[in-house]
Amino acid sequence: MKSLCISKSSSFSCRGVITGDPYIPMNVVGVPDEVARRMSVQERVTDYNIAQLQGMMDRGLCLTHEDANSITHSLDVGKANKKRTILKVGETVNRRILDGDAVFVNRPPSTDKHSVQAMYVRVHTDHTIKINPLICGPLGADFDGDCVHIFFPRSVSARAEAIELFTVEKQLVSSHNAKLNFQLKNDCLLALKKMSARKYSRREANELLNAMFTAGLIPKKRLSGRPEWSFAQILETVLPQENKI
Question: How many independent structural domains does the chain possess?
Answer without folding.
Answer: 3
